[in-house]
Known about the structure:
CATH topology of the domain at 2-98 and 269-282: Nucleotidyltransferase, domain 5
Radius of gyration: 19 Å
Mean pLDDT: 90
Low-confidence stretches: none
Order of helices and strands: EEEHHEHEHEEEHHHHHHEHHEH
CATH architecture of the domain at 2-98 and 269-282: 2-Layer Sandwich
Strand content: 15-25%
Number of strands: 10
Amino acid sequence: MILIAESDSTKTEWVLIEQDDLVQQSSTEGINPLIQTRKEISRSIRLNLPPVFFRRRLKQVYYYGTGCISAKEKDKVMTSFRAQFKSPVHIESNLLAAAHGLFKNKTGIACMLDADSASCFYDGKTIVKSVRSVGYILGDEGSSVTLGKLFLSDILNGLSPQRLTRDFYEKFHIKGDDIIQSVYNHSSPPNSFLVSVSNFLTGYTDDEYVFNLLVNNLRNFFTRSILQYDYKNYPVRFAGSAAYNWSAILKDVGRKFGVNIDRIEKSPMNGLIEYYAQNMNER
């Protein structure tokens, strides 16, 4: 039996797999070694994951996560996971999860658009070239976090429509000064609040202001994260809640760049399960 986990900063998906069968599935809060200590990661796993995940004898744990960009961060996660599951642990970025889930053993351009954003050229085995997630402060163009950040900036600078601003304050039960507190001094990760703001905007995509905000956010992603690849000769696919929720607009923006998107998945997990079923004998 193996355990597969895929995480961004706001949520983690877990599945137990026996041969080709899905034994157990769960979802918990996100894991990010860039902003969490080893003890915080271990505590999050132990308190939120159902007990059945700790009772099974595991051949291997495969973890794909945001923030796993250096040996230091990977070691932090590996130490936490080994302590909790008492099994061998393999750590990779969640961008590779998108590549494995979207393409299995085939070649293509895999894009991740969720709380974070990233893209890569995948040769069917490994990531050959990538535009990685650098976090919402330095980048993550196209992501739900960036959309939320852009909207909040407009609210605070009086640039958002009055009706939308009023609906936002009523929905979140906050005032202008509370926005800054929620982003910078809130007890939960600030990107969680920004994702919730983006989810709020998803219900207003027929509003011209929101539509343009979303389109410009996505255009920035294509410019910085797709156009540098040979996108005319390889399939382009997306994984992530943001990509899934905005799929029609995303495809339309892509067409205007000459990019044909042939697949969008809300999560790479189903594809990951298929990937490991196909490659289990090699592992």
